[in-house]
TrEMBL record:
It catalyses: beta-D-glucose 1-phosphate = beta-D-glucose 6-phosphate. Belongs to the HAD-like hydrolase superfamily. CbbY/CbbZ/Gph/YieH family. This is Beta-phosphoglucomutase. It comes from Paenibacillus tianjinensis. Transmembrane segments: none annotated. Pfam families: Hydrolase. GO terms for molecular function: beta-phosphoglucomutase activity. Its EC number is 5.4.2.6. It is an enzyme of class 5 (isomerase). Keywords: Carbohydrate metabolism, Isomerase, Magnesium, Metal-binding, Phosphoprotein. InterPro entries: B-phosphoglucomutase_hydrolase, Beta-PGM, Beta-PGM-like, HAD-like_sf, HAD-SF_hydro_IA, HAD_sf, PGP-like_dom2.
């Protein structure tokens, strides 16, 4: 019996991956190397600084820590510009309906995201009030596949891991949910999200 539902943000609630992509690409253009949508797959669910490290590895470039912080800051300012235009129309199919249904059933609802912009995004989508707990990149120190983000969410809901279900689109996120001892619903392709207990194409399926 599910007492708590913990949702990833990017790829589950809203497709912000395309804005991350555009913002990172403006950086890689400046640095003078190609960055494709395929490369972008590797950045999903990964923290901002780790994303930058992966990018610099693709471009075969190295920078000082200070320079990297500056580049990540610049990328984030551009990203925030994009997502400040977000509205409800960009919610993924079935999200609103499913959250409403869970609330009606008395299921606790939490967000478990790597993003430091999570609250801003929930606000733009006008769904912040539907969450009983929001755990984001500002609240955790260990990134997925570490279970910290989901453990903290479960704790804030006042529940046990076995009472919580995680909804995730990224491999690292599915692994994090399993490591936390929770049931995991994968959103995406079964061949990619092998570790998930169930894989669906979107919340509209439930
Ligand atoms: C999201 C995205 C990642 C992004 C990360 C950090 O994670 O999937 O691509 O790098 O957040 O975002 P920010 O730069 O806004 O802090 P999630 O966990 O919501 O899928
Ligand atoms: Mg995700």
């Amino acid at each position: 019996q599910m007492k708590g539902a913990i949702f990833d943000l990017d790829g589950v609630i809203v497709d912000t991956a395309k804005y991350h992509f555009l913002a990172w690409r403006s950086l890689t253009e400046e640095l003078g190397f190609e960055f494709t949508e395929e490369h972008n797959e590797r950045l999903k669910g990964v923290s901002r600084m780790t994303s930058l490290d992966i990018l610099l590895e693709i471009g075969n470039l190295e920078f000082t820590e200070a320079k990297k912080l500056e580049m990540a800051g610049k990328k984030n300012r551009l990203y925030v510009e994009y997502i400040s235009q977000l509205d409800q129309s960009e919610l993924m199919p079935g999200v609103k309906e499913y959250l409403k249904r869970l609330r009606k059933r008395g299921v606790g609802i939490a967000l478990g995201s790597a993003s430091k912009n999570a609250l801003f995004i929930l606000d733009k989508l006008n769904i912040a009030r539907m969450f009983d707990a929001v755990i984001d990149g500002n609240k955790v120190s260990r990134a997925k596949p570490d279970p910290e983000v989901f453990q903290t969410a479960c704790h804030e809901l006042g529940l046990q891991p076995r009472e919580c279900v995680v909804f995730e689109d990224a491999q690292a996120g599915v692994a994090a949910g399993k490591a936390a001892g929770m049931q995991v619903v994968g959103i995406g392709k079964p061949e990619v999200l092998r570790e998930a207990d169930l894989v669906i194409t979107g919340l509209h399926e439930l």
